[in-house]
Amino acid sequence: MSSESTPTKTFAQQQAERMKRLRELHRMRNEARTHNHHEVVAEDARNKMPQNWEARKRKAEWILNDQKEREEASKNGEDYDRKKLLNLTAIDAERLERKKKKKNPDQGFSDFEAATHRQYNRLVKNMAPKDMERYEEQKEKLGDAFYAGPHTIVHGLHQDRPEAIDNLVKSVEDQIAKRNKYSRRRMHNDDADIDYINERNAKFNKKLERSYGEHTTEIKQNLERGTAV
After folding, report:
1. pLDDT for 188-206, tens place per residue?
2. Using CA atoms, how far apart are residues 166 and 131, in angstroms rounded to an integer?
3. Where is the composition biased (Basic and acidic residues) (predicted)?
């Protein structure tokens, strides 16, 4: 039984294969070096940015996409909010509700200063810029004057757009309408206890009762019975 012998490679062929593998290793090393350099540069750039830069970027992108989808739904005659709810699962809805309660807990009424601060934050949150590119351009152009401080002269720097003026007018009108809705005069109850000296003091006492009434009921009863210590 004869067997065919395997031909042996010559020295020149072996040398050529070694050189080929060596060139491949050199190429892979150069690619790894270039990739590492890019990663170092990118990491350095990220470290120089604000800590919440990524979150702000994602939020800006979400706002732009949401606005675009809302405009497309409006052109097609669709209810965008209802369309979003149809694509929302029960688990996601529960998660968003928990997140909303955790982020915006109802702290009740403490004083008028805190109530004004909460209203200001709520109004500012609803005034997000629609054109983020123009927003960033103005921010870079104006520098420190973009966020005006007590000693900043902004006259002539900002030019209000008609859309921004209309939004401000609408916001003020909405506040007036809401205030008129909840500030209408209530009917007087002759059987209710008189614990106020004027109408403003009566409203203040009602706010205190809503926030702290459940914690002070027993104290009031003890004072009325004369058994308070």
Report:
1. 666 677 878 888 888 888 8
2. 16
3. 30-47
